Amino acid sequence: MSAEAYLHALHVVASPLPSTSSPSSGSGAQHQQQQPRRRAAPISSLDSVRLMQCVFYLRRYGTPRQLLNFWLRHCLIDDAVRYALGARLPATLFIEAIVRPTIRAGRQPLLFSALRQLLDAPPAGGLGAAARDYIGATCQWLSECGALTLLVDWLQLAGDWHRLGVCCVQLFLAETNSAIQLRYLEQAKHYVSESLSRPRHPPSPSSPHDSAASAVSAASAASAGIEAMSGSELLKLITLQSQLSRALMSSHAASASGGSSGTGSSSSSRSNQQQQQQAAPAALSLFGPHGHKCALAEQLLVANNFELAFQIMHECRLPVRDICQQAVCKLALASKRQAATRINDLLRNIKGTIDDDDWDLVVEAAIAALASSDGGDDVRSAEKLVGKLVGPERRVIGYLRCGKLKTAYLTAVKLNSRPLVMQIRDEAQRTDSRSVLELCQKYLAQQLD
């Protein structure tokens, strides 16, 4: 007789037993008042004798999978867990026969309770290390499945606070609602802070899974190396990303409210708020590649959020000069009427934060952007920026970009620079500026004599 046929003959039923005491019974009510309330959980409908007979029969003639299925069917999760750990069953069988059914049946808290008892038990029993191995394997499986929400619960059970923070960062990257994104960032910040103040569980020498060490390896591959960061580095980046997300949300909210001002019904206001929350500031995040970080810093400079932009450039070691050059070019194109004012604000804020050579390159980019504009006011604003250049030779180039060939010639003559005068001569020929061309030719002839 097979094990399954034996169980069928015993009329194995997985439904819970009905209550034996009536609510109207006085003695039953008194007993309930004396005894503390316990969490209701499904129990086996088999009496203890038949239950032990089934377990004995399955242990002797059945397979481990059949025995685990029997215990799970009767909600004897603690027995199933202790048997799996004591028999050192493969982690894949633990996941398939215990973890997946309990999650599917909504009984994960019961499984956690059973595992937590073994983790908290004295090490003499020897099951605590095995429990950590199974928890680590389950974390690995959940990570490979992309079940990040469930992975958070299991990492909490494992006490792996650093990887909890990494997992919350991945949830942040996968979310599009800005309010929920901020919530994930706050959780990540809390968990990483905890990891810096608490010791992590050492891996078991006999463990084939290195506890939860590889729990988020697959999911973190797209997170630009956040798995390899130290706790302090990750905490700094999470804090910066929180500030950045709030700044982008405020900027988006201001632009949305400005665009809808005067139209103003309550329904459109609620719609705008929903659109603001659905805006995805994490499309470009500090957890992304190098180019994303540069684009975000540039965006902050254009939005006049200089302090946060420079904090990001400093912490992420970004090329300040290149980002500032891109920002001034974008300002010149984006705001025609206020381009000069906003560029001057940007230059005033970055003055002293970069060396003279980089400063001149940024100013030259601003001069070129303004001088290439069609408006005469922008060209005059570009000419005013020439005086901000540190290098005298660069001032000559600045005047050339603004079309001030005579001023460029006089400055080049003061420097006694033949190459600069030759460059001015070529520009004079190209623009048919005969007076400046004659001056350049006369100077060059005198230099030959």
Describe the protein.
With 449 residues, the chain is mainly α. The protein is 70% helix and 0% strand. The chain is built from 24 helices and no strands. It has helices spanning 3-9, 26-34, 48-61, 64-73, 77-86, 91-104, 108-120, 127-145, 148-158, 161-174, 178-197, 217-220, 231-259, 266-278, 290-302, 306-315, 320-334, 339-350, 356-371, 376-386, 392-401, 405-415, 418-431, 434-448. Helix 13 (231-259) runs antiparallel to helix 16 (306-315), helix 19 (356-371) runs antiparallel to helix 20 (376-386) and helix 22 (405-415) packs parallel to helix 24. The N and C termini lie far apart (119 Å).
Which descriptors would you attach to this protein?
449 residues; rod-shaped
Give me the secondary-structure topology.
Blueprint (H helix, E strand, L loop, with lengths): L2 H7 L16 H9 L13 H14 L2 H10 L3 H10 L4 H14 L3 H13 L6 H19 L2 H11 L2 H14 L3 H20 L19 H4 L10 H29 L6 H13 L11 H13 L3 H10 L4 H15 L4 H12 L5 H16 L4 H11 L5 H10 L3 H11 L2 H14 L2 H15 L1
Order of helices and strands: HHHHHHHHHHHHHHHHHHHHHHHH
Uncertain segments are 9-42, 202-222, 271-282
The average pLDDT value, as a whole number, equals 80
Question: Which range best describes the helical content: under 10%, 10-25%, 25-40%, 40-55%, 55-70% or over 70%?
Answer: 55-70%
Question: Biggest sheet: strands, sense, closure?
Answer: none
Determine the structural class based on helices, strands and strand pairing. mainly alpha
